Fold Cobalamin-independent synthase protein.
Amino acid sequence: MGKLFPPFKVDIAGALCVPSALRDARSRYQGGQISQQTLRAVENAEIRSLIERLRSEGVRIVTDGGFRSYDFLEAWEGIRRKGDAGAPSGKELEVTGRIGLLHHPILDDFAFLAANASDDVLPKQHIPSPGKVLMRILRETDAGCMKSVYPDLNILLDDLAAAYKKLLEGLYEAGCRYIQFEGVKSMLTDEAARLNNRVLRERPEGLFVAFHAATDMLIRLRGADAYFLDYDCGICDRSRLLWFVHEREAVFGFVLSYYPDEEELDELQAKMEEVLNYIPVKHLTLCLPDADNLLNPSEEDEEKQWKTVGLAKDMADRIFPV
């Protein structure tokens, strides 16, 4: 793992399409037909296949594809999913005490990913950003329940920062050198932005952190090594984005919002070359579309995804010098 380090010409910005075997296993698990251990075994098998497929396609980044099925917050101390009975509408979480972090299953997930990755690829771990977790807790927890444990929001921010610091240190000790934080899609609060920046400052030295979010979120960040932006979506403010790129000494990954066809490569190349007027080519990364944008990825979507991997490599050959 020490031989490779970001940035890479082609990167993975989010989840990949869930294979049909895993979709079927999840459905049978939810229906009570198989055990959690059996579901986990299917996840492991599909992640191994994904690692080998990415490697065979020449991608130097490997991830678990977002194939794990648990909730990121389920392993946190002091917070749990609330029962349906009597729960206010939309309030799905319950704060039972000061929030902290025990041994999070994502540490075991990374250990599995790293153990199955060969030396010519780099395992990358995706995690919800601190600000995203904060906003989810505030949105999905009853205000009265929250106030009884956290009368001062700053105490909650301190606890979340400490939990993330512990998690990142655990991942680093396990050999992880590349993390990606997933941001929110709604408006970011000042507290969430401050929490993001604090966690970035306190991360282990030598841990490369990419941040994937909308431009409005990213312009409030300080200290990320890479910023992944949804460059070709219709709501992107292109002039503001290019100003943002110009103001940052960092890597920029531009994420496609759909699976392109060969006929669109010239248009995509023109967009990338526009960006290269503002940053050196060594600071640019091409990112695959995020399958989380698809409500229920089909086998056809999966085929398009792998076709896009090939197109991304073709685009990289056009843009990047040999």
Residues 10-319 form a domain with the TIM Barrel fold (CATH 3.20.20.210). The mean pLDDT is 88. The chain has one domain: 10-319. The first helix runs from residue 20 to 30.
